[in-house]
Amino acid sequence: MAHAIEFRNVSKQFAGSRNAVERLSFAVEEGTTMALVGPSGCGKTTSLKMINRLTDPTDGEILVQGRSIRTLPLLELRRSLGYVIQYIGLFPHMTVADNIAVVPKMLKWPKAKIDTRVDELLELVGLPPTEYRYRRPRALSGGQQQRVGVARALAADPPILLMDEPFGALDPITRLRLQDELVQIQRKLHKTIVIVTHDMDEAVRLGDRIAVLQNGHLVQLGSPATVLAKPANDFVADLLGQDRLLKLLRKTTVGAAMARSPITTDAPRIGEKASLEEALLALLATGMPGAAVINDAGRIIGSLSAAEIVGAAKAAAC
Amino acid sequence: MDISAFLASNWHRILDLTLGHIELSLYAVGISLAIGLPLGVLCYCVRWIGAVVLNLVSVIYTVPTLALFGLMIPLLGIGILPAIVAVVLYSLLPVVQGTYTGLTAVAPEIRESATGIGMSYVARLWRVELPLALPVVFAGLRVAVVNAVGMMTLASLIGAGGLGDMVFRGISTVSWALVLAGSIPVLLLAIIADLGLRTLERRFAARQA
Amino acid sequence: MSLMDYISLYRDNIIDLIWQHLLLFSLSLLGATVLGIGLGIAVARLRIVASVIVPIVNLLQACPEIVLLAVSIPLLGIGFQGALIPLFVKGVLPILRNTASGLANVDERTVEAARGLGFPPLQILFRIELPSAMPVIISGIRVSAVMLISVLTLTAYIGVDSLGTLIVQGIARMDPIPLIIGSILTAILALIVNYLLVGAERVAADRLT
């Protein structure tokens, strides 16, 4: 089956400067999230904008669902790709509902269908329609505006969502909450998402795969666990930060690492869905050598020792 | 002559001149809006036209208003037509510039998301950029209207009538009553237009921003 | 009579009028600048002053110049001060407005930093705030200057000589030659003043970066 999005040797050069993107090749599978990550100027935003043709590559080819985007009518292509940007870009003269309805209206949906769709989306992003439908963007907080931005991008049910630093303008707490919500939404909708971010934590949290870019080159491509465990070079390791191994533990569940050795009754208990980071913290806090793993029903189903945590980290790296 | 007595016996004529003054000003502003708005949009869409037109209208603006009327005489003679043409030329700058500035001031991220979402160039202009530019366009229109009302006073010098008839006759006959009878309605018109349009402008701006 | 004949015949006269125009211009612009900046500072600093002056400013801004001139006849008489004062009033407005908004837009953090370093208030005003607002203030002076050059032509109607005298002559005698000479000279003066002050604006802005 064709990839949802594929870059084939894509290069982009802006007049009079070095290549912004250099022979970039990667593919995004249907229903997965790809995080493009790197410092500013690494070419990640340019790469994203080449997908909806806000800018065109100088060389190479981009395919969406197996078809070269050059062969697709421009406006139809863009309407089939949801687009969310950092500064949100809501239209300040339209109500929340009108903002969300922009693309369905361009696609000439019947009015009743648009109305239902708007309410449905507002529910999805956690803004009760009766309260928010007729508000104007300026009457919303930054986080609420960005939710509307996501709802607008999802309006015509595009199979693919492009997000350019979608949570970059928000405070850290709101950002975390919206990242969680995006994960929840993605569990329901299974869109193909390409998200651009300079924040490695965000990439690890949201991406099924991560592409690390440096000066227009792809320096590493892999699952968050692989990237965390085996950064391709010092540049990637720096991006990940000192605590990259802790982040790795955060990405693995207790259930995947537990053993079945006998356990003392005074051992701390930890749920099978908790992360290894939480388990490690529990061991550190209690000073015990191992923890009992329990399932949702509270029954002990296994055990976890520090050695198993180390082992799991090693395994994840392979 | 006593002013109140003068007003009592001449109110009919003052009213007539005032109505004529309003009519002339409205024609002039209407025409400059009809020309200036599309021209402003064109300046925004086509960069080289913008450079040429914006410079041209600002040069027209530096020609003294008095001279602009005077220069109409060799070209169009005297009467209503040359007066309106002169005021239209002078009113173009605020309208064109207001439209252009308003469109340019639309935030780049709004423009980008309109394009990214799949709006055509015309749809983006019509549904996003122009509505957002409206308060600034309106500010330009207000300046144009207030200018036009004041400038029309000079139109009487080239025989177009209006309240200037009274003002200038007052100046040349050194009659305080005549000067005031002509000036006060002009003043009131200008102030009413200014305040009224300011209120509308504020309402427009409050609806979005 | 051809244009060249007219110029050679009335050469001294025309040069006199240019000087007279420039004299009126310098005096009114100087006065307007001093008062405009002073009031602008007061408006930016004192809320009470702002609430009194801003509406008056908006009203005066809407008054047509010829009306101001005409009304000043009975109050100030025909002659030099009758011509200068209303024009000077009109010239104050753009400068006042730009000074006030320029000061209001000075970066709060810079002022705070200066205060933290122990600058006395007057020094903050003269060494930090006014220089930061200078490009905007100069742009207000430019708007005033260009307007004054043009509006000064109207003084001819209340018996004070300026380049407007030529224009008025032309209109009165339906003779395009003095009309064109007067208009072009005024427009040239306005353009020169405009470009000089655009340059000054740029210099002031460059000094900030």
TrEMBL record, chain A:
Highest taxon listed in the record's lineage: Bacteria
Any Pfam family hit: ABC_tran
Stretches assigned to the ABC transporter domain: 5-240
Keywords: ATP-binding, Nucleotide-binding, Transport
SUPFAM superfamilies: CBS-domain pair, P-loop containing nucleoside triphosphate hydrolases
One MF term in the entry's GO annotations: ATP binding
Residues of the signal peptide: none
InterPro entries reported in the protein's UniProt record: AAA+_ATPase, ABC_transporter-like_ATP-bd, ABC_transporter-like_CS, CBS_dom_sf, P-loop_NTPase
SMART domains in the cross-refs: AAA
Membership in a protein family: Belongs to the ABC transporter superfamily.
PANTHER family named in the record: OSMOPROTECTANT IMPORT ATP-BINDING PROTEIN OSMV (PTHR43117)
Designated name of the protein: ATP-binding cassette domain-containing protein
Organism name: Dongia soli
UniProtKB/TrEMBL annotation, chain B:
Principal location: membrane
Keyword line: Membrane, Transmembrane, Transmembrane helix, Transport
ABC transmembrane type-1 domain boundaries: 18-197
InterPro entries: ABC_transp_perm/SBD (IPR051204), MetI-like (IPR000515), MetI-like_sf (IPR035906)
Residues spanning the membrane: 24-45, 52-69, 75-93, 132-154, 174-197
Record bears the keyword Ion transport: no
Pfam families noted in UniProt: BPD_transp_1 (PF00528)
Cellular localisation: Cell membrane
SUPFAM superfamilies: MetI-like
Presence of the UniProt keyword DNA repair in the record: no
Top-level division of the source organism's lineage: Bacteria
Membrane-topology descriptor: Multi-pass membrane protein
PANTHER family hit by this protein: GLYCINE BETAINE/L-PROLINE TRANSPORT SYSTEM PERMEASE PROTEIN PROW, OSMOPROTECTANT IMPORT PERMEASE PROTEIN OSMW
UniProt protein name: ABC transporter permease
Source species: Dongia soli
UniProtKB/TrEMBL annotation, chain C:
InterPro entries linked to this entry: ABC_transp_perm/SBD, MetI-like, MetI-like_sf
Sequence ranges assigned to domain ABC transmembrane type-1 in this UniProt record: 18-197
Alphabetic keyword roster: Membrane, Transmembrane, Transmembrane helix, Transport
Membrane-spanning ranges: 21-46, 66-89, 136-159, 179-198
Subcellular location: Cell membrane
Topology of the protein relative to the lipid bilayer: Multi-pass membrane protein
Protein family membership: Belongs to the binding-protein-dependent transport system permease family.
PANTHER family (alphabetical): GLYCINE BETAINE/L-PROLINE TRANSPORT SYSTEM PERMEASE PROTEIN PROW, OSMOPROTECTANT IMPORT PERMEASE PROTEIN OSMW
Protein name: ABC transporter permease
Lineage per the UniProt record: Bacteria, Pseudomonadati, Pseudomonadota, Alphaproteobacteria, Rhodospirillales
